[in-house]
Sequence to fold (966 residues):
Amino acid sequence: MTTPAYTRKDFQTDQEVRWCPGCGDYTVLASVQGFLAELGRPREEFVFISGIGCSSRFPYYVNTYGMHSIHGRAPAIASGVATTRPELSVWVVTGDGDALSIGGNHLIHALRRNINLKILLFNNQIYGLTKGQYSPTSEVGKSTKSSPFGSIDYPFNPVSLALGAEASFVARTLDMDRNHTQSILKAAYEHEGSALIEIYQNCNVFNDKAFIQLTGKEERVHNRIDLEHGKPVVFDEGAKAVVMRGGEATIVDSSSVDPKAIVVHDETRPDPSTAFALSRLSHGPYGPTPLGVFRNVERPVYDQEIQVQLETAKEKLGEGDLEALIRSHGTWTVEESSANGGS
Amino acid sequence: MADEIATTDPSSTPTETAEKLVVRFAGDSGDGMQLAGNRFTDASALFGNDLATLPSFPAEIRAPAGTLPGVSSFQVQIADFDILTAGDAPDCLVAMNPAALQTNLKDLRQGGTLIINTDAFDERNLAKAGYEANPLEDETLEGYRVIRVPMDDLTKLAVKDSGVSGRNVLRSKNFLALGLMAWLFNRPTDPTIEWVEKKFAKLPEVAAANTAAFRAGYNFGITTEATKNTFEVKPAVLRPGTYTNVNGNTALAWGLIAASQKAGIPLFYGSYPITPASDVLHELSRHKNFGVRTFQAEDEIAGIGTTIGAAFAGHLAVTGSSGPGIALKSEGISLAFMLELPMIVLNVQRGGPSTGLPTKPEQSDLLFSLYGRHGESPLPVLAIPTPSEAFEMAIEAARIAIKYMTPVILLSDNYVANGSEPWLLPDLDAIPEIEVEFAQHPNGPDGTFLPYMRNVDTFARPWAVPGTPGLEHRVGGLEKDSLTGNVAYDPGNHQLMTDTRAWKVANIANDVPDIEVAGDKDASVLVLGWGSTFGSIGAASNRMRKAGTKVASAHLRHLNPLPNNLGQVLSTFDKILIPELNTGQLLKVIRAEFLIDAVGLNQVTGEPFRVTDIEDKIAEMTK
Fold:
């Protein structure tokens, strides 16, 4: 079978895309469609499952199998697909409210199990679809419709959370940077097991410019810390570097340290502690913030393991025999025209 | 103690033959009463008796030892004819401690046999059980045949060479009691000894201790001639065929496996542990060689979530829980209804609301099953009447789910789930296949695929599973266009889709077997039941008829849609009695549906009906 030659258009549907004009979701959608076309994999092998929220409309716009489900439950539903059909490529599209608030439990358990799901977490730090309440990633003090005196909720750092759940693949990217997004998508796709990709996504209606420190022409030069496997963690055109001090990742002037002291990023490090330390460099996109792959390690994959158990059971016990099963607790026979049983 | 069962003729003690006997084992929840009861039951089953069991245990794994709430019991009725319940009043009670005596003595029939572990009747235990005076020394036990057995001392003596030591010694006490019961009721001993050897193959000293205690109990009966006569119940005259003893949860799990084979698609079971449904998960997880995937979800919601995913992916998808867990799944079930995907939602009911009575039966989730979802979302609802029928009801639920592309709610309860009875094994080849037709080709104009284009007979939409080329489509919880499945908000479409979904489920009535009337067709009273009251209702009706009262009974297995002939059947009787272990839920449905002045008999004690209670009610209505 030849691999199909697709263009981005093949992954578009006939449905009108209904996000607000200028929404970051459009860029992510284009990045994903373009990426899928480039893979050349038959499109019937992809399944996109989403929850509820602006970003969760995503499956309607991607011409693969898809399900727009209920709030927070996409990782669970997708786990059911991946567990029963490990040959498929299963993707979850979720947002900061969907994944980290109502669906927090499913997210961490999918990551813990290392089910082969690629989870795209669109983080705009606000509830968009319900028109502007603070979210579990909104900064403390944020004034919104439901927090007129400022939010007192301490936010999650999604990358730290995923690393805490020992996710085998954790990355962060930006909606506006299509090349970066596509390179992360590719790495996640090639990874076996669950992958969490946090996508900083601008909501130009309810939380505009939330990521300006990373997207603004002036600001991004100083604040984007691009993590690259095997390379020293430096940014701000080499002026700043990251070193480990007392177990913490710390930003220093490059000139003030021995170059050998600078952290060399190793995404394959089995222990997640260094990746976690890097994730703590920022509590949100308000200053220097790492982007890229934090962690990419091999670990047994749930849906493959379940397959192994099924096959092992068949090898050991033989193909299931229903007749034998219903007799497995012992039987007795009542003979025709006889009051006596017992055998 | 002798190493073997004494060879002196046990028949030196005369034997009294009975048609039926009710035996109850009662002790502390750590005393192994469930195990003893189950062994006694299995030996009786293999001997050929008909039987029915009623296990009863506290919700706590180990409630404080010796206390009243810590009492665990197991009742079994054995008979030489076809019986339907575990019996009302025990003929024989084993009381392993004062608390067990205190909570169970009131049920023992006058003149019944009482086997007491005298070693447990010390001051401390007596106080815990609320006895001011020792009932072994006053008139409490007058009118019963009491067999006093120093079980602790006898057990210690019996197991001293087994290699078991310390606090583990007394754990064999239940086998001592079981051995004595085997003698008293002339049960075969081999099945129990073989079971012990197999079960404890990896713990030879435990096997040796249990066997020694069992033999010591048996021999205690013989050598002390503990009672003036022993009892026997001859094998029952049952329909010819091969039987096994099975409980409802096991039969259900096997039925799901059978359904998967008949449908030719793998079984997926997504579930979160909850009493009394967990045993279904346990049983299924053992049978991976049947291609069964079990998924112990992180919560109840993930249980239904993974099940929806598995159904979308083309598997026979099932989630199981009990009342509180089903409540958590409610939003997911409504999504599944909206998506029109086939799956089974199993509810093993227990006493509610909230945590309620986790280990007791109740039928209080009927209205919740019929109506407990948001929006207009009618679902097929089935209920299992007896432990063994769980097998075919599981297949029936799968058949309806797949044929009509809908979630199906399958109701069981703690009585069906944990009770056991002989099951005449079915001819598996005679069970019809369940036809699964995955969509393979576009069904719309210009090679398009219309995921909501329906089968003209069943109104089912096509099941197009991921991986099928050309049928890529999106489904979701938002209202969908009646053909394309695309999001559609227009008023006419929502009306059409709401009506169509309801009509699809209502139409299943044409595929539901007619309800059958048992007993006297010309009686004035029809007793209508559903679920686990089957045995109590059947036994009460049979006894009334034997005593000369005309009475009819009928049992619903399909609660939605109801059988087409139900209204007509009900209209031919003057009075309708509906016994339920709730405050009148089917009663409400029947009155609303048929404008019939039916009468309820309702009980929420956490116990099944006593047959006599139903008899009394029938008598009152036929007076």
